[in-house]
């Protein structure tokens, strides 16, 4: 059951700003759960001021040297899923990426 006004974007809704009072303050979303004219998005790591961030804008920094940054694609408010270097890729001199982190050979001894 889809309920407009519960602050949860459900099937058939573009956005959901909550109560009528909240929606009056929302620059992107209207009280009928659709984007206001000129708005491309209402939320998301790749949404700012109701517009998609430009292609190539970093939306998630790398956490370590085996992690890769993620970038906005310019056509979506969502940041792509987190991506890591493949297991076996060299890191930190003599280490290797394994299960999303850099591990040294000496750690196993």
TrEMBL record:
Disulphide bridges: 59-79
Membrane-spanning ranges: none
CC terms in the record's Gene Ontology section: external side of plasma membrane; sperm head plasma membrane
Membrane topology summary: Single-pass membrane protein
Subcellular location, principal: membrane
The UniProt record lists the keyword Transmembrane: yes
Superkingdom: Eukaryota
Keywords: Disulfide bond, Integrin, Membrane, Signal, Transmembrane, Transmembrane helix
Domain Disintegrin: 1-87
Keyword Protein biosynthesis: no
GO BP terms: integrin-mediated signaling pathway; male gonad development
Pfam families according to UniProt: Disintegrin (PF00200)
Annotated localization: Membrane
SUPFAM superfamilies on file: Blood coagulation inhibitor (disintegrin)
Gene3D superfamilies: Disintegrin domain
Name listed for the protein in its UniProt record: A disintegrin and metallopeptidase domain 26b
Species assigned in the record: Mus musculus musculus (eastern European house mouse)
Gene of this entry: Adam26b
